[in-house]
Amino acid sequence: MQEQGRPEGRPEGAPGGEARPLFGNTAGGHSTGGSSMGGSSMGGSMGSGTMSAQDEQTWSMVSHLTVLAALVGLMPLGALVVWLIYKDKSERVRFHALQALWYQLAWVVILIAYTVLSTILSLVVIGIFMFFLLPILALIPLIHGCYAAYKVSQGEDYRYPFIADRISGGPGRVM
């Protein structure tokens, strides 16, 4: 729901000044972002209009929960599948799935680099202690992904720090 005093299209916690759209482009002068998860709509449903708001919320939440595929070694694949299926059906689901995909890929790279560094340092005996921290380090993306899914299930459009700005066209856009 729109909070009083917060301009349309500005996510919660966005710094003052200008309002920035949550998902990049706007359609028909209306932001495609925000938390209008109730029955209200802004010129149709969010995104391209082929999904209901409830379906968008569900698939946005599922895209974040795909981080749990890491438990069986398939971490970025779930988010990739959700993105491939829904990227043209909903701007909101596309944003959340792409955000989850890049977040999970970043953690795969971090964990691989940490393991390689630990292996190299274990030759000097220092790295043996780093292996004890690896399971704790691996829990961070699981917990953060579940937290993001929880926030989306509550109707808030969660943004991963740094990654969301790159996807939605914020500072230093990469995508």
Provide a descriptive summary of the structure in words.
The protein has 175 residues and is an all-alpha fold. Strands 1-2 form a two-stranded antiparallel sheet. A hairpin with a 2-residue loop joins strand 1 (26-27) and strand 2. The chain has a domain at 50-168. The protein is built from five helices and two strands, in the order ββααααα. 50% of the residues lie in helices and 2% in strands.
Shape descriptor: elongated
Radius of gyration using CA atoms only: 18 Å
Biggest beta sheet attributes: 2 strands, antiparallel
Q: Classify the secondary structure makeup into a structural class.
A: mainly alpha
Give the number of DSSP strands. 2
The DSSP helix count reads: 5
Which runs of at least 5 residues are low in confidence (pLDDT < 50)? 1-21, 24-48
Percent strand equals: under 5%
Chain-averaged pLDDT: 75
Sum this structure up briefly.
Helix 1 packs antiparallel against helix 4, helix 2 packs antiparallel against helix 3 and helix 3 packs antiparallel against helix 4.
